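User: Hey, quick favor. My workstation is busy. Could you predict this chain's structure for me?
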Amino acid sequence: MTCPWQLDNEEILKCLACFLKNSYICSMKVTQEQQVIEVLRNEGGYATLRKLNGLIDFSSWATKTPEASVRRIVQNSKRIFRIRPGLWALEEMRNDVLNQLSINPEDKKSEDLFTHGYYQGLLVEIGKYRHQRTYVPAQDQNRVFIDKKLGEITDTTILPDFTHEELKRKARTIDVIWFNERSMPTDFYEVEHTTDIKNSLSKFYELQDFNSGFYIVADVCRKNEFEDKLHASMFSSIENRVKFLSYDQVADLYQGLKIVDRSLW
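Assistant: No problem, here it is.
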């Protein structure tokens, strides 16, 4: 066995370089996770993936895809948990965060209310990014979207005067509507967390004469239910116009807004 003092200078330098390299790699892994955790802590314990990517300093990250690294970290770290797709929080602050967001894991109603408002808010933010005028119903303006109310982020809770009153009455309860610069509706979105999908399809049926997109937003587990109800004979005139969007699709689009440059769905 060779004793350390019997190594020549070249061998000592090689051992030192190897040690420093391995230490650097380990420290980089820790530093990246710590950076994510520190940003979450500074944001009150929670943030969307999009916000994390906007706040983290990637200058020291030796990767061409730092956003993918952040996604990997939040998914794999035992110190971070998922509130909803695209929304992450610190495990050490779990109770404080859930209380702040008015989520009670033992109260299904509070879970449902947060989920509905969360996806309405994501759709509003996506629409505003696409330079659309966004609408949510007046009765939903006090619903919570993360740390704000929907009424604070949407452009209006008053439906533009784009058609006669009977059709406006049908449209007034749509969860999110996007309007173009001429105040004509371009897209109608209904978030179906627990309610009957048929009710939303009935609204779309009444509004079918508009050159607009129609979307049901729900958990992917409801897609078969959506297909069954859409293909009922009464909806045959709109069955090729209504699309299903999963919660993950909406969250992923919101996360990648900066690279969206063409049709959304």
